[in-house]
Design goal:
mainly alpha; 3 helices; 0% strand
Length: 108
């Protein structure tokens, strides 16, 4: 039986358009109507960025960022310890296999 692979034709995609400039983005934002879906969704979810953040909100976000960074650092340290322990366990496994082979060799 002869299996023949069909060659797939490659589709040539058009090149990507250039990203908009800052001025174009700002113009687009300024032209948006107040009932634009982006703004209405933000209001519905309580993420309206047009309201100024209070000092307590800023402090809360700052504390959350600090906690995140501290936890991230602890996770990186734990990762390093786990990698070291993994290497030690692998070395112990190799040594154990060698010892088992030696004991089996003596028994025979």
């Amino acid at each position: 039986m002869n299996i023949v692979s069909k060659s797939k034709k490659r589709v040539v995609l058009p090149s990507r358009p250039n990203p908009p400039t800052v001025d174009q983005i700002l113009e687009d934002i300024n032209r948006a109507a107040p009932n634009d879906p982006v703004y209405t969704i933000l209001e519905q979810t309580g993420q309206d960025s047009s309201r100024p953040a209070s000092d307590s909100d800023v402090e809360l976000k700052f504390q959350q960022c600090r906690e995140y960074l501290e936890l991230n650092e602890r996770l990186q340290e734990a990762r390093g310890r786990l990698l070291q322990q993994r290497d030690e366990l692998r070395a112990a496994g190799v040594q154990l296999e060698a010892n088992v082979a030696e004991v089996k060799g003596r028994a025979l």
